[in-house]
Amino acid sequence: MKLHFFNPFHAEETEQLLTFYVGEDFAMSPTADNKLNIFNGIPIRCTVFPRNPTLLPWVSLPASFRKVHYVQHSARAANGSGGLDGMLLGNLAVALNFTAETMDASDGQEYGYRLKNDTFVGSLGDLLQYRTDVSFNVRFMKYYDTHGIEFLHPIYSDQLCILSPKSLEIPQWLAIFLCFHPYVWTSFVVVGFAGGYCWYLLKRWTLRKVSRYRQHFLKGDRAQYTVLSIEMWLVLLGASSTYLPVRMIERTLLVAFLIANVIISGTFQGTLTTAFSTKSYYKDLNTLAALDKSELPIGTSSRSLLDIFGNDSLNPLYQSLKGKLRILNESARHRAAFQRDVCCIERHSDVHLIINTEYIRPNGQPMLHVVDECPRVYSLAYIVRKGWPFAPLFNAAIYRFVESGLCMKWYKDTETALILQKRIRQLREQEEEPALRKLTMIDMQTSFYIMGLGMLISFSVFIVETFVGRDLKCNQL
Predict the structure, then answer these.
(1) Where is pLDDT greater, at 319 or 443?
(2) Cβ distance 57 to 82 under 8 Å?
(3) Where do the TM regions start and end (predicted)?
(4) Domain boundaries, the chain
């Protein structure tokens, strides 16, 4: 079977009509490969601008990563661009045999948007004004206030998430109070008072039997409820009690609380050791409701992200969060990490790399936190002018790269190389703290504060009782 294709890019008219033999040329042979490279090296204008981590200049890539053969091969065809967008551009140029003429956005506005006078800026404006053919920075597939563009085949889908400042470290003196949930502390206090009240009821019951059978009163039979509660607290804390019961029913109650003392004291000591030896942090913002209650504004430098919570959403939470959106003339991400007075918007797939390469402390702790609830999910693709005649050819090639898994491989390889480079640099610049360390007096300072506070209160009560007792004695005289 014989097929004929017209290729207008060959200079010689005799070579513009290509003949394919199905049995021969469509097999994996060099003949078919040469005939399918139909662009014949013609230049195609591509707008690219640096964006970490999807498009990086050659010098920004780790040195070890630049030595990989396929990275060098794609970067050479993409004029020195790396990352997912750069590698895809380079491999498309090789696969379709065109020359990539890369240029930055003419006005430096990167993705671009529509102005109030209905003109467009950035790479979007360059595309609509015929200064470029393809914008090779992957972007969200949504409406950009114009019907003059269309999207190529989607590369991948991604969530649009909120990054909040990472919660601060809990001070050492406060850590022991926050090592248990407030419900646990409440239960511990209630158990002590409830145990004292049970002991008091048992004594009242035994006193009736003593009076009925005219038995002798024993030590502690007439003890008050407050005294018994204190005694029960002593038992729970592992101290000795001055009112040891002699009656079997009271001893049974005391044995139960002695067993509880073993469990509570062991758990308490283990948790305190963990609180002293490890660093703990306040709770992060993990829901959009918690983000709304925090009253932190949400900053972004891209006007196209202002619809993250929808334009006409009936959800009151989304309406409240939409009112917190702010356009910043600086990096919202940098401000959220260092000034901690704003949140920012990022793609979920980029967050891991961004935090681990740009916003991580020397001890390995991140400076930003990803809110678990992400309000939007988008597909991402490149844009061309509507009706661009080469779009079907680009779509077919991109489809093959996506379905073969190469796009995700290029992204993951770049991400891993950048994270390893950053971590190795940190290890060389500063030694890490040892995983195990000795407890010092600074770790135990809270116990001395509590002891000092108790002694101060006791001394104050002693002074008050001394003067009150003296006044009562004088009045009696």
Answers:
(1) 319
(2) yes
(3) 173-202, 223-246, 252-276, 447-468
(4) 173-275, 288-376
